[in-house]
Amino acid sequence: MERSARVRRSERPAIARVRFVHPPASPPSCRLPRRRLGRAFQRVDELDVRLAGRDPRLRLAAIRGRLERAAAGLADRVKLSLGAARAGLESLAAQLAQLSPLEVLERGYAIVQNELGRIVKDSAEAPVDSAVRIRLARGRLKARVTESGPNGRTGPPFVAH
């Protein structure tokens, strides 16, 4: 035993005998600070978890991931939109090509203009002996009208020599 627990006979009081009492594991005077300390550590742990959840690097990484997914989705939508627009444009271009005067000329037709430069739509607009200009798919011609009549048929059909 320690010195404090062992008292010499000469030091003992005559009336009472000193007894050694084992100290409790946590004396009442220490229990309160230990509880406070335990709660403080628990609070520190809770705050640490909260702080880790608010770490700007983690938040930035999450935002960066969302941004990358949104950018990829946007790129996909733009590709789809451009593909649909391209298909519509190609369809319109095909329709326009069919209506183009140059495409009509490629199919064997010609554009005939009178001496004033107006397009001839009726045989009366190009009387006999008038000069006309003829535009073909590849090239131009100048000609003189030798016959004219309704529906363009006054004589036998034209025969090329």
Instruction: State the end-to-end distance.
Output: 145 Å
Which bin fits the share of residues in helices? Answer: 40-55%
> What summary fits the major beta sheet?
3 strands, antiparallel
Overall mean confidence score, pLDDT: 80
Structural class: mainly alpha
Using only CA atoms, what is the Rg?
55 Å
Identify the strand order in the major beta sheet: 1-2-3
Structure description:
With 161 residues, the chain is mainly alpha-helical. The protein has 2 domains: 27-99; 102-152, no CATH class. The protein is 47% helix and 9% strand. It has helices at residues 28-53, 56-99, 101-106; strands at residues 111-113, 131-136, 139-144. A hairpin with a 2-residue loop joins strand 2 and strand 3 (139-144). The longest helix has 44 residues, at 56-99. The N and C termini lie far apart (145 Å).
Summarize the structure.
With 161 residues, this protein is mainly alpha-helical. Helix content is 47%, strand content 9%. Residues 1-5 have low confidence and may be disordered.
Strand and helix layout:
Elements lengths: L27 H26 L2 H44 L1 H6 L4 E3 L17 E6 L2 E6 L17
Antiparallel strand pairs: 1-2, 2-3
Attribute tags:
3-stranded antiparallel β-sheet; 3 helices; 2 domains; 161 residues; disordered N terminus; mainly alpha
